[in-house]
Structures are given as structure tokens and as C-alpha cells.
Amino acid sequence: MLELTGITKKFNGRTILNGLDLTVTDGKTLAIVGPSGVGKTTLLRIIAGLEEADAGKLTWNGKQTTPDELRKQGILGVVFQNFALFPQYTVKKNITLAPTLSGTSQQDADAKADELLAQLSLTQQADAFPATLSGGQKQRVAIARALALNPDVLLYDEPTSALDPALRDNVAAMLNQFKQSGMTQVVVTHDMDFAAAVADTVFKMPTGTED
Ligand SMILES: Nc1ncnc2c1ncn2[C@@H]1O[C@H](COP(=O)(O)OP(=O)(O)OP(=O)(O)O)[C@@H](O)[C@H]1O
């Protein structure tokens, strides 16, 4: 179980997050919702260790830790809003790069990538470069890349924002499929329909914290 307590973050003296508490339950999907600018992405980036909180505590299974530590241990995976694929590498290399850099053999990384490509209907695209893919395909590659590290918790920043409505339903089905396999997921979204389709719990970001 991942628990955040008292998370506070200011940008240029403006309070974005004000002592926020959040619990992420194992095997569940938590949607973080709220209007634009309320700090959803900032919160996700803090959980992922891409942004540092000014105050607050993070615990994993009751033990205090840091996002960097959780990422190093492969506990957290992140699917970025703009996919953040490496344009110079093929789809397959995008998926195998991080595992091989963290010590997995190329052979094992390739086998895992082939499995994920098949699972996410991307086998045909294995040798393609990101620029040639559709938005939905890029999204699935970004998800496959995060899954390749076998995270316990997968974080998604606005996973549907670049997709048309039909693809949005596909992403919802995918997340629900991952849940069946026991994955813990945290989804930042401003899309309430999507949140309703995937979430066990909806966390509404508090508003009006500006000082
Ligand atoms: N690096 C930064 N420097 C200064 N201000 C920032 C920075 N990152 C975010 N902000 C500000 O913090 C506030 C919250 O931004 P954030 O992106 O977390 O909101 P959001 O709820 O995810 O919005 P959206 O739904 O539009 O993505 C905004 O006012 C934004 O301008």
C-alpha cells in the first residue's frame, strides 16, 4: 500500500498542494480528478519522483521511503501524458531499453517485449519508429514500456487526452484488464466518464488552496 501524507507544494510562492493525504490500495485503480490547473499532474509527478514536494511523507507497505527509491526498486512505473517515447529507437527498443540498462539480459528483455507487444496488439509495429505510429499505438507502446519493468504500481498522466473517444474506451478496457491481473493503478484524468469506467476510488483534488 502506498500512502502519502501532508504533501505540500508551492510554485513561486503559490500553494498548489496543501497538506494533501492520499492512500493507494493494492490491486485497485485510483482516479485523481479535478479541473485544469488544480495540481493533478504535479501530484503525480511528486509520487513518481519527478518533482520534489516541499513537505510530506511517503510510505510503502508501512515503511517511509522516497519516490526515487521506489522507482529504483521498480515498484513504480509511469505512463506520461505525451507518451515520451524515444524517437530514435524502434518500438521494441523503446520497450527493452530500461530493462537492459537496469541489468536484465537482452534475451530476457526481448522475450518480455515480445510478450507485451502481443498482449497490446503491437507485434506488427515492433520494428517501426514512434513517428510512424497512430496516437493509440503510441499510447500502447508507452504502456508496454512501463510494464516491461514489472512495476507494482502504474501511474498514468491523462492517458486519454490525446485519443479519440473510441480509443478512450480501449484504454479503459486495457486498464480494467490490468486490474484483473492484480496491478495497482493511479490515473490522473479530467475525464469523469473515463474515471467512472476504470476507478475503484475517485479522489477529487481539493481546490482553492491558493494563498
Ligand atoms: N514547474 C512549474 N513551475 C511553476 N508553476 C508550475 C509548474 N508546474 C505546474 N505549475 C503550476 O501549478 C498548477 C498546477 O499544475 P498541474 O499541471 O499540476 O495541474 P493539472 O491539474 O494537472 O492541470 P491540467 O488538467 O490542465 O493538466 C498550475 O497553475 C501550473 O501553472
Automatic annotation (TrEMBL):
Domain ABC transporter: 2-211
Record-linked InterPro entries: AAA+_ATPase, ABC_SmlMolc_Importer, ABC_transporter-like_ATP-bd, ABC_transporter-like_CS, P-loop_NTPase
GO molecular function, one term: ATP binding
Keyword annotations: ATP-binding, Nucleotide-binding, Transport
Tree of life domain: Bacteria
Signal peptide location: none
One Pfam entry name: ABC_tran
Presence of keyword Nucleotide-binding: yes
Protein name: ABC superfamily ATP binding cassette transporter, ABC protein
Organism of provenance: Lacticaseibacillus sharpeae JCM 1186 = DSM 20505
